[in-house]
């Protein structure tokens, strides 16, 4: 479920909007920007990064690792789309961001570690406007014109995991996601 909600839906929506974005960027000369919301949780995934053969495996499911896998998929998607758009010469950038730990109710049903961390809310966590800052920065700041395929934390480029920068894994995820969406559309 995490993979479908956090990655596949965004992958599909982005692809539905892409032709319009390309046309608009070409017509207006204004750079289009796509920002994928990821998380530092992308570090906490399954040992193979993306479990293509076990996406829906209930026997070895871990909520923490499934969430991490979906957030890794967000970065891989951004990186692969960035590569493809650069290859086409499209005037669109694609980046992924980690907003930080945000004080919202999303964590109320989450795994134990996050509930424990919530005790330190005012020290470690950001409020909603602080959490939105990096996404807004990447979406509109003129200093990021032409910057694509990056992972940003607190409005700065930040190194992502080895899995997140694996070009072959990104290509494999793209094909896997494309085929999944295609099969769902035809059924």
Task: Report on the architecture of this protein.
It comes from Ambrosia artemisiifolia (Common ragweed). InterPro entries: NAD(P)-bd_dom_sf, SDR_fam, TIC32. This protein has 187 residues and is an alpha/beta fold. It has a single domain, classed as Rossmann fold (3-Layer(aba) Sandwich), CATH 3.40.50. The chain has 6 helices and 4 strands. The chain has helices spanning 2-28, 63-88, 112-117, 121-124, 128-140, 167-186, and strands at residues 32-37, 92-98, 151-153, 156-157. The protein has a 4-stranded mixed sheet with strand order 1-2-3-4, with helices on both faces. Helix 2 (63-88) crosses helix 6 (167-186). The two termini are 19 Å apart.
**How do the helices and strands follow one another from N- to C-terminus?**
HEHEHHHEEH
Query: How many distinct domains?
Result: 1
Largest sheet: 4 strands, mixed
The N- to C-terminal Cα distance equals: 19 Å
Q: How many strand segments?
A: 4
Proportion of helical residues:
40-55%
Strand order of the largest sheet: 1-2-3-4
Structural class: alpha/beta
Q: Detail the poorly predicted runs.
A: none
Assembly state of the chains shown: single chain
CATH architecture: 3-Layer(aba) Sandwich
What is the CATH first-level class name?
A: Alpha Beta
Tags for this entry?
10% strand; globular; 51% helix; 187 residues; 6 helices; single chain; Rossmann fold; four-stranded mixed sheet; 4 strands; alpha/beta
List the helices and strands and how they pair.
Layout: H1 2-28, E1 32-37, H2 63-88, E2 92-98, H3 112-117, H4 121-124, H5 128-140, E3 151-153, E4 156-157, H6 167-186
Parallel strand pairs: 1-2, 2-3
Antiparallel strand pairs: 3-4
Helix pairs in contact: 1-2, 2-6
């Amino acid at each position: 479920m995490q993979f479908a909600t956090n990655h596949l839906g965004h992958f599909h929506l982005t692809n539905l909007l892409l032709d319009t974005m390309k046309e608009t960027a070409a017509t207006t000369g204004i750079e289009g920007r796509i920002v994928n919301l990821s998380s530092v949780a992308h570090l906490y995934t399954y040992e193979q990064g993306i479990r293509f053969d076990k996406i829906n495996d209930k026997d070895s499911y871990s909520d923490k690792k499934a969430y991490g896998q979906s957030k890794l998929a967000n970065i891989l998607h951004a990186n692969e789309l960035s590569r493809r758009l650069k290859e086409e010469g499209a005037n669109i950038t694609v980046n992924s961001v980690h907003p930080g730990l945000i004080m919202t109710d999303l964590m109320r049903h989450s795994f134990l570690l996050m509930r424990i961390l919530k005790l330190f809310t005012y020290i470690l966590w950001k409020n909603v406007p602080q959490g939105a800052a990096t996404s807004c920065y990447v979406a509109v700041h003129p200093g990021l014109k032409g910057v694509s395929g990056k992972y940003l934390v607190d409005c700065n480029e930040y190194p992502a995991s080895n899995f997140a920068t694996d070009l072959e894994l990104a290509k494999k995820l793209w094909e896997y996601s494309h085929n999944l969406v295609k099969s769902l559309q035809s059924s």
